[in-house]
Amino acid sequence: MTSPLDAPSVSVPDPEGSQTPRISTVPATRLSSSGQEAVELAALAGLKLDPWQQHVLDLGLSEREDGRWSAFEVCVNVPRQNGKGGIIEARELAGLFLLGERLILHSAHEFKTSIVAFKRIEQLIMGCPDLRKRVLRVRRTTGEEAIELVTGQVLRFLARSGGSGRGFTGDCNVLDEAMILGDDAMGALMPTMSAVPNPQLWYLGSAGIGSPSVQLGRLRARALAAVESGEPDPSLAYFEWSVDPHRAECGPSCTDHVGVDDPVAWAQANPALGIRISAEHVRNERLSMGSGGIFERERLGVGDYPSDGSETWQVIGEDAWRALADAKSRPEGELSMAIDATPERDQAAIAVAGTWRGGTHVEVIAHQPGMGWVVEKAKALHERHKPRCWVVDAGGPAGSLIQDLADELGVEIVTPKPREIAMATGQFYDAVAEQAISHFDQPPLAVALAGAQKRPLGDAWAWARRGVGVDISPLVAATLAKWGLTAEVDNKPTDILVNVW
User: Fold this and answer.
1) Three-state DSSP class for 432?
2) Where residue 432 sits, what CATH number does that domain have?
């Protein structure tokens, strides 16, 4: 199959970006909305909004029968340069000039981002005579940037990284760069809103970047739960433009996922495609960023989110793990493969380990829903690569597959004893500490490590399967695969092929 990137250069119209989000939930209490008035006010100030931006404002500014906001929290998750700044500006203009909100707080993670936003809305207001005449003063002192109206309304700009804004009570809080928003910032903000009669929080950012995206991960999890259950979240309006990309195990007929090189996928994740983003520019980004996952995150909204709101990377630090990523790493020599699954048996993983430059390369070969695919996949891998052993924890969820695996593969499955499982976990942990592991920085492994916790096992410890709120089957499989490189086995390896999963 030819990739769109390999197609000859011809003049074709840019695909139009999707004006509706892929993931969305809004409260069911909507009676009316101030959204259209906000759109008209923005137009008066010279800000023309795209249909998708108008859609967000219409639903985000929905009101209940009692006049309060339907959504206490509104979240917009969209790739960069699509125009989330226009939504911010329209919401802040409405708060100042339509809604009578006494204090609007605009915060960003970095001071420079906050200043850019301040200058943009200042130009909109001061460039419109009807709005400019209602301004009492504009404060431009560093750290005190604000716009104040003659009627007392104030819009202030802050940087969260400096701890600014603690103690202020805002009617509306706009949190830009929401992918960098953790418990400390939320702990400083939430108590200040308890005495506000009708408060609202607006989060705007792009795809999650791992542990810094704690709050965005919480909001997204609530939205996904609402979509899955069919029951709208009672206080959250969530809008996400993103794609669900093909996995390595997807076949050519897969219709559940999309290819990252497909302009249709680009349009799904970028509502401004064909408006302020061209397909040619996206194509250039794809070629420049390569296949390391950056393009998927930055342009297609494929994020890395903490599994829940709890503390992340408790056992192995994120920096330590990311530092071991090596795109050139390959498993060499004898291979060991291992299988694990979640306690609920709704996900399973196959991992491989091999030597690499004096250390060990670990890699997740497959990570898919359910258990029915595992034996067939293992048989195909075994026939192609002839690993020295297959490792499965007999006491774990994948233990039920051991007999079928032995029958299909024609080999004895290695089943470590509890003390050997503790040994395997300790060896994995020590290898990271000693920088003796390499990997591809695959999301399944990173997510598992971000949420992993310890469980006591004799005088040692192993990975905790239950109560961690994250699928650690890729991590357990990788740990057992590494241990399998030195485990005693009777099966003699034959010809070995690598890295063609």
Assistant:
1) helix
2) 3.30.420.240
**CATH number of the domain where residue 165 is located:** 3.40.50.300
| Dihedral sign from CA coordinates of 108, 114, 120, 122 | positive
Cβ contacts of 179 within 8 Å, gap of 6 or more: 205, 206, 207, 208, 209, 212, 213, 216, 303
Which is nearest to 220 in space by CA: 233, 230, 231? 233
- Asked if the structure places residue 32 within a domain, the reply is yes
* C-beta separation of 300 from 266 below 8 A: yes
In this predicted structure, what is the pLDDT of residue 309?
A: 42
Which tokens in the block code for residue 422? 């503790």
Domains of the chain: total? 2
Q: Which residues sit opposite 359 in a β-bridge? A: 356
CA-wise closest residue to 18 among 227, 244, 265: 265
> Is there a contact between 475 and 498 (Cβ–Cβ < 8 Å)?
no
Same domain, 329 and 460: yes
pLDDT digits (tens, 9 = 90+) for 2-18: 444 444 444 456 689 99
Assess if residue 493 is contained within a domain: no
pLDDT score at 2: 40
SS3 assignment, position 390: strand
Domain boundary pick from 240, 270, 305? 240
Is there a domain that residue 8 lies in? no
Which of 318, 412, 398 lies closest to 366 in space, CA to CA?
398
73 found inside a domain: yes
pLDDT (0 to 100) of residue 3: 44
Query: How many whole angstroms separate alpha carbon 98 and alpha carbon 62?
Result: 14
The percent of residues above 70 in pLDDT, for the chain, comes to 90
What is the extent of the structural domain holding 331? 318-484
Give me 187's structure tokens. 């702990």
pLDDT in tens, 366-377: 998 889 999 999
d(CA 186, CA 164): 13
Distance CA 322, CA 318 (A): 6
Conformation bin of residue 407: beta by default, left when phi > 0, alpha when psi is -120 to 50: alpha
Q: 464 and 359 in one domain?
A: yes
